[in-house]
Design brief:
Layout lengths: L19 H17 L3 E2 L5 E3 H8 L4 H6 L2 E2 L7 E3 L4 H10 L9 E10 L11 E10 L4 H17 L5 E7 L3 H15 L8 H9 L10 H7 L11 H16 L5 E2 L11 E9 L7 E7 L3 H4 L7 E7 H10 L12 E5 L2 H16 L4 E3 L6 H10 L4 E5 L1 H6 L1 E6 L5 E5 L4 H15 L10
Parallel strand pairs: 1-5, 7-8, 12-13, 12-14
Antiparallel strand pairs: 2-4, 3-4, 5-6, 6-11, 7-9, 9-10, 10-11, 14-15, 15-16
Helix pairs in contact: 1-5, 5-9
């Protein structure tokens, strides 16, 4: 039989243990900040009815037209892997009656999303997204609050050269006037534009501003801007948002070309952009979608939120030399010589782990030398080697793997307690461990 050579699918990535500490850093960061702002975690299915995304994301978007993964099984049809987190979260909010609880509802999630795109730096076919959704307020203070949360996360991550761009794409009423102005502008150049833009011209001319084609992008540079067409309510909302951001000390630039890639947005849209990850510079984007809940079958209820790609966040942190939280390693390795010592090592390992210590012992049957090499590989902070002499004496030598310092430690019922106290002293003192009175 020929040997299989199966590799991971194009556009996906393995996160191996040596890189996991970076993910633990950013996931812990986003969750702690979301909770500090009063958001609560929600988990939703990986796949949904495809109609959910067509209805919410929009049938003229690249996501629906080109990028969604459909899934099926015997007896099932019409499902798709989620391309983003908002639609499923809003569906869950409606279906589980959260919309009837106290408002605003403030939810966050960390999940995987799927889009069939050309893989490049910062853009994968399976990617991970942190997102927040706030439902039940149309006040511009909510917009400022959500933007402030995103800003606090990026600041806490230690990122530099991050620009906040904001825009308003109006409400359905004033946007209709703007869409007509766009049709009039693009009509003379329509024959030069791509086939996708031809279909968007009638259905959703706002998408013409978001085309990635070089020819279409060049034509779009002179297009009318939405801020010239805002109604009084949308203009007041946008001006109020700017006042709140200014009051909070959050710098921003107004970019009338931002429309975002999904159809559900209304009024406020925003992006945080980095210059350090190439063409895929948007590390966070979001805005308001006041009609989405009603569109998906709920009662009229304004809402807003944002999504933050974790791969792009990590990539930006790496490119800027930001330090991640240190990888957690083995606290103590218990080596053994002989069957009785192996039994004792297993017993002590059990007690240490119950006490919250990261402990390992030999489960392979290695020699003493090989066990010590393994202790080095797992970056154990301390090691103990148990043999007949240690069992008979009731004490063993606890070795600091960094300094080589050795300290006697009793092999009795207090072993775990004594080691834990010693470990805390070590963590507090760092390199000055030699000067700490442990016992």
């Amino acid at each position: 039989m020929a040997q299989l050579n199966i590799q991971r699918p194009t556009g996906t990535k393995d996160v191996v243990p040596s890189q996991m500490y970076k993910w633990n850093t950013v996931e812990g960061l986003v969750k702690s900040h979301a909770e500090a702002f009063g958001f609560k975690e929600i988990r939703i299915p990986t796949f949904e009815d495809i109609g959910l995304f067509v209805r919410s994301v929009g049938d003229t978007t690249d996501v629906v037209q080109k990028e969604m993964y459909s899934v099926s099984a015997t007896g099932d049809e019409g499902y798709a892997l989620r391309p983003e987190g908002t639609a499923g979260t809003i569906r869950a909010l409606i279906e589980n009656g959260l919309i009837n609880d106290g408002l605003p509802q403030k939810l966050f999630y960390v999940l995987s999303c799927f889009r069939h795109e050309k893989p490049q730096a910062g853009r994968l076919r399976e990617f991970h997204q942190f997102g927040v959704e706030m439902a039940g307020t149309k006040d511009p203070r909510a917009d400022a609050e959500v933007i402030s949360l995103a800003k606090s996360i990026l600041d806490a991550a230690g990122l530099k050269n991050i620009q906040l761009n904001i825009n308003s794409i109006g409400c359905p009423e004033c946007r209709a006037t703007y869409q007509q102005a766009l049709r009039e502008y693009f009509k003379p150049s329509l024959d030069e534009m791509c086939g996708t833009c031809h279909s968007r011209y009638e259905k959703n001319p706002l998408r013409l501003l978001d085309c990635k084609s070089e020819i279409c992008s060049e034509i779009a540079k002179g297009a009318p801007v939405i801020t010239d067409y805002l109604c009084d309510d949308c203009r007041t909302h946008f001006e109020s948002l700017q006042k709140y951001l200014t009051a909070m000390g959050i710098e921003f630039a107004i970019n009338p070309k931002i429309v975002r890639g999904l159809d559900y947005y209304t009024k406020t849209v925003f992006e945080f952009i980095s210059t350090d990850i190439g063409s895929q510079g948007t590390v966070c984007g979001g805005g308001r979608y006041d009609g989405l809940i009603e569109e998906l079958g709920g009662k009229p209820c304004p809402a807003l939120g944002f999504g933050m790609g974790l791969e792009r966040l990590i990539l930006t942190m790496e490119n800027q030399g930001v330090e991640f939280a240190e990888e957690e390693t083995c606290d103590i390795y218990l080596g053994s010589m002989g069957d009785e010592a192996a039994l004792k090592a297993m017993q002590l390992c059990r007690e240490l782990r119950t006490d919250g210590v990261r402990a390992e012992c030999d489960v392979v049957g290695r020699s003493v030398r090989a066990q010590m090499k393994y202790a080095d590989k797992v970056k154990a902070k301390f090691s103990v080697m148990l043999g007949g002499n240690e069992l008979e004496a009731g004490t063993a030598k606890l070795r600091n793997m960094e300094t080589g310092e050795e300290t006697d430690i009793p092999l009795d019922d207090n072993f775990a307690k004594v080691f834990n106290a010693m470990l805390i002293a070590y963590q507090l003192s760092g390199e000055e461990f030699d000067n700490v009175d442990l016992f």
